[in-house]
């Protein structure tokens, strides 16, 4: 009599995205779940807000850091997202769509305010040989003198950016702060790729022109 050994393989079925709790879903699956019914699933939308809240807050901060009602604007962004998420045809591009809603809201508010002096909070830049602006802070801790000069340059930079037209200011924020590609910026702002490149180039040129006297004054000391 021979015995044949058999290996038992239990039928283990993995949960589908529809069965998983929101915190275990990917960003794309969260968006898809929010689009499944007439109103977004509450738990999924709450998790989506949790993941992208800081993104909205950073973008609004860089666009309008001296506006005291940024929290209200952030809330309005998510109200618009809640009402319109089912209309998003490409769920994988949710972040860009969210950025467009945020930027459009900023433009709407900017048009309502006759006189707005917006100053952006940017890390101290350095002009590079190719004309690009490096917005990253040095890794090493600066000396007290360097720290003072950085603060002075930072103040000059804020003043220069405050003088930029709103369209230039927005493209600089989206490019240098958000790190978006030119194509994404064109999509968010609703202008052509050539216009985006032109605005960024002119904004950089204008900033460098405004800051050059300050730089030359310190270099000659």
What are the main properties of this structure?
mainly alpha; Rna Polymerase Sigma Factor, Chain: A; Arc Repressor Mutant, subunit A; 2 domains; two-stranded antiparallel sheet; 59% helix; elongated
Average pLDDT confidence is 76
Largest sheet: 2 strands, antiparallel
Q: What CATH architecture of the largest domain do you see?
A: Orthogonal Bundle
**What is the fold-level CATH name, i.e. the topology of the largest domain?**
Arc Repressor Mutant, subunit A
The tally of domains stands at: 2
CATH C-level class of the largest domain is: Mainly Alpha
The neighbouring-strand order within the major sheet is 1-2
Report strand %.
under 5%
Any overview of this molecule?
This protein is an all-alpha fold and 221 residues long. It folds into two domains: 22-112, Rna Polymerase Sigma Factor, Chain: A; 126-219, Orthogonal Bundle (Arc Repressor Mutant, subunit A). It has eight helices and two strands. The protein has helices spanning 27-34, 42-63, 70-84, 94-112, 144-162, 166-177, 182-189, 193-219, and strands at residues 126-127, 133-134. It has a two-stranded antiparallel sheet. Strand 1 and strand 2 form a beta hairpin. The chain starts with 26 loop residues before the first helix and ends with a helix. Residues 114-149 have low confidence and may be disordered.
């Amino acid at each position: 009599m021979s015995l044949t050994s058999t290996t038992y393989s239990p039928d283990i079925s993995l949960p589908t995205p529809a069965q998983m709790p929101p915190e275990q879903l990917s960003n794309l699956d969260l968006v898809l779940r929010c689009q499944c019914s007439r109103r977004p699933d509450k738990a999924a939308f709450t998790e989506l807000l949790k993941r992208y809240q800081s993104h909205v807050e950073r973008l609004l901060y860089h666009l309008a850091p001296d506006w005291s009602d940024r929290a209200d604007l952030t809330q309005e962004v998510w109200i618009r997202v809640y009402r319109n998420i089912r209309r998003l045809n490409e769920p994988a591009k949710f972040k860009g769509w969210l950025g467009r809603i945020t930027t459009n809201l900023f433009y709407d508010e900017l048009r309502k305010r006759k006189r707005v002096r917006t100053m952006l909070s940017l890390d101290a830049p350095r002009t590079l040989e190719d004309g690009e602006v490096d917005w990253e802070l040095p890794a090493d801790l600066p000396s007290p003198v360097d720290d003072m000069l950085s603060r002075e340059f930072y103040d000059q930079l804020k003043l220069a950016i405050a003088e930029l037209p709103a369209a230039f200011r927005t493209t600089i924020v989206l490019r240098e702060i958000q790190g978006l590609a030119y194509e994404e910026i064109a999509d968010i702002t609703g202008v052509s790729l050539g216009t985006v490149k032109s605005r960024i180039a002119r904004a950089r040129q204008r900033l460098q022109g405004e800051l050059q006297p300050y730089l030359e004054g310190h270099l000659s000391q």
